[in-house]
Batch of 2 targets.
Target 1
Amino acid sequence: MTKEQIKQLAREYGADIVGIASMDRFEGSPVQMDPRFIMPEAKSMIVMGFRVMRGSLRGIEEGTFFSNYSAMGYGALTYTFIPMTVMNLCRDIEDEGYEAIPIGHQSDWRGIDNKGNLREHFSRPVEEGKPQPDIMLHLRICAYLAGLGEIGYSKMLLTPEFGPRLRIGVVLTELELEPDPIYEGPQLCNRCMACVNNCPGHAIHPTKTVKVTLAGHEVEWGELDCDACDVAFRGAEVLENGEVGTYLPGRTDTKPAHYSPFYNKPANLYNSGQAVCGAMGCTRACMIALEGRGVLKNKFKTPFRRKKLWSVDWSDYEPVENANMSLSELGSESSRKMSQAKEKLKETLTLSEKHDLEAD
Ligand code: SF4
Ligand code: SF4
């Protein structure tokens, strides 16, 4: 099977863009992210990019349909569409007699946390010299090493087709394929800082940067505050001076931020979808900037931002409970309360009245 055949199949199965990395490009990777520990005999990594629909950001931009970005925008893409594509491609490769691993999800089983630290009391290496399970592939770095685009100041992968509006799936295989060159222009990130200035959690540092060498190329991005992003992307504002708020489950110090219309963070969609901020800085603002400069190939008839951004007034905020339950959880909760009330009522009834109540 040639590289061209693989790319054509990947596109037919649903990928928007495809690149190939050779395994030597991962030399120097942190062991917990080195795919060569997953498949020591791997010869190639096929990296596929799947566009997030610009339309999936429309509902948040308008302030009326937040779930679509978390669900169709990336949840369903990550947990349904990408797995199907990588599985189909792996079937074809294994039919040719080469092992292929479909990697189309983000795993909560990973041995490191969001900051890259080993998770304590989570897992241990199966033998000396091996990493702590599970390995976590850094998908954006994989895409960079397969030539799909560059890493922007926001640490997002920026591609010439879709800018930051992309999710990634990977196939690791023993099949040897000719690698694509690393992307070298035209340069997409011009350090405009729209991502920094529009991130509601101030999670992308304006001056502190991280520098790494990837396959011999120097790459630099702004330092990310994962904790700040974790709070802000779910639409929360942290309260100070002992004020109480129930926006985030399990915390008593958060209220809805001005860019969340929800009294409490709504339930996750497709396991991970809970981006109430609608990637306001790292994706929306960056996409608007890149489209404005005319550097993206996926062009639209109308600009994305068509009016002034809205802002919710929470100055009269009072904590409320339960609103962050899903509708089915709310249904179970109300059934539980009904049963409790029935049981209490039964205590006061005669035998025949109890019988009538059961018959209801
Ligand atoms: S918003 Fe500007 S600085 Fe930030 S990643 Fe995009 S192009 Fe680079
Ligand atoms: S997801 Fe939201 S909070 Fe996190 S970096 Fe992007 S814009 Fe900032």
Note: Residues 3-291 form one domain.
Target 2
Amino acid sequence: MARAQMIQQTERVMSSAYMQWAKTHLQARFNLASSGLEPYPLAKLRVEIDNLELTGPSFYGYEPLQKALAKKCGVLPDCVVAATGTSMANHLAMAATLKPGDEVLIEQPTYELLVSTAQYLGAEVKRFTRSFEDGFRLDPNEVARLVGKETLKQLGETAREVGARVLVDEVYLDALFDDAPSTAFHLGEEFITTNSLTKVYGLSGLRCGWILAEPALAKKLWYLNDLFGVIPAHAAERLSCIALEHLDEIAAHARHLLETNRRLLNAFFNARDDLDWMPLEFGTVAFPRLKNGSVDALCALLLEKYETSIVPGKFFDMPQHFRIGIGGETAMLAEALARLGKALFDISARPYPRSARPGNSFSLRWPAKRERRGQKRPQRERSK
Ligand SMILES: Cc1ncc(COP(=O)(O)O)c(C=O)c1O
């Protein structure tokens, strides 16, 4: 076997290309790249200093937070394992259930950290596709666009037969608000679910995440967590309790923002014939496909010329797609979409001058206005 191939097979994954990109590219002035809601301000939580403390009785969970999370999820507190965001929840869940060499099936497209974490743990990752043409359905025969209860149940039965577990990352579940089904944890003992207050509620800074698992596994998760973080920041636990007390109010704000922004995005999509898209009905992100041209070039142009960020589909193994997040403030979103429309016009009007390789994105020359004179403008974006 060639040495390079051997190294490739034995070298452990020790980083996430997507996370490195996200931490260095996400914060453009016009941000369509974030998957979560705009930050919910501390001032609106109406926190009183007397409600906070720096150190407290947090060992295998902080009891008030354990109870609040259990109540929110409709489970017993001994099924809840607190974690630093859904990211750490996913890591813990995989680390507790996987041995090196275990086979893991992960949907595609997916959040890149799920794949790199499984690889870091030495699992053999296999992917199954949820295709764009089928509306990303898990089962093509399923009529519903969402992963329905029945589909998940069937998955659970298959998993039981082969002694597998099913990890369901539910970080966007609450974006269904009143229509959200209850957590998949209730479907059977083989289900482990992860979630957090980070995305849908704009509370990323709290890092309030959790895992739901049957009590024996939950205990194993707590003990494994001792090797990672021992105890969390207690002030964050106290703030998480306050946030959970006011979750209805925070959810109402999130719902209003997402509904308004979704209309705006769908109006933008409606006016475009250079993208394949489906109307966004739920959630915080859309994943259209660029019909012609390079998504890397589009991303580079958008960032350089229009100060706007989107996430290239290559991070989801679908390089002709890009991700648009709609959780930002509405006026910012409107401007960002207008800028995206201009960049789409630019790349369709004239092929991008150089192939946009990673690392090349800040040195691209864009043809001057005068060079583009005389080109027909595309259909104007309809406003909502
Ligand atoms: C599917 C999925 N899971 C987990 C996360 C990370 O969530 P958290 O910020 O709670 O760690 C993300 C972030 O984009 C995500 O898309």
Note: The mean pLDDT is 87.
